Amino acid sequence: MTDRIQDKKLIFSTYSFSLSDINFLQKLLKDSFDVETRYYKDREKGYRIYFNQEETKKLIRIIYPYIIPSMMYKIGFRNPVTTGSLRRHRKVKIASYKML
Hints:
The protein is of the alpha+beta class. The protein has helices at residues 19-33, 53-63, 80-83, 86-97, and strands at residues 4-6, 9-14, 38-42, 46-51. The chain has a four-stranded antiparallel beta sheet.
């Protein structure tokens, strides 16, 4: 799962991936889902993949149906398990992201 969403940008912590692994994953995401990514080196920890705001929205539209409720906070939604029903959660939060 993701490390976090920061400023509506999705970030994957891929510290244990080699640069060739990062490039392979970028190509896979582009070819399979038409999602563009970038990467950067995070000090000496390793590489991180990130998605700009538009690509984040595109990826969330694709993966949203497969995310269990308790992990929704990982993509920037409140946890429906602790904040109310999933039905109410989806209507309010997805509408505010203007994804549907």
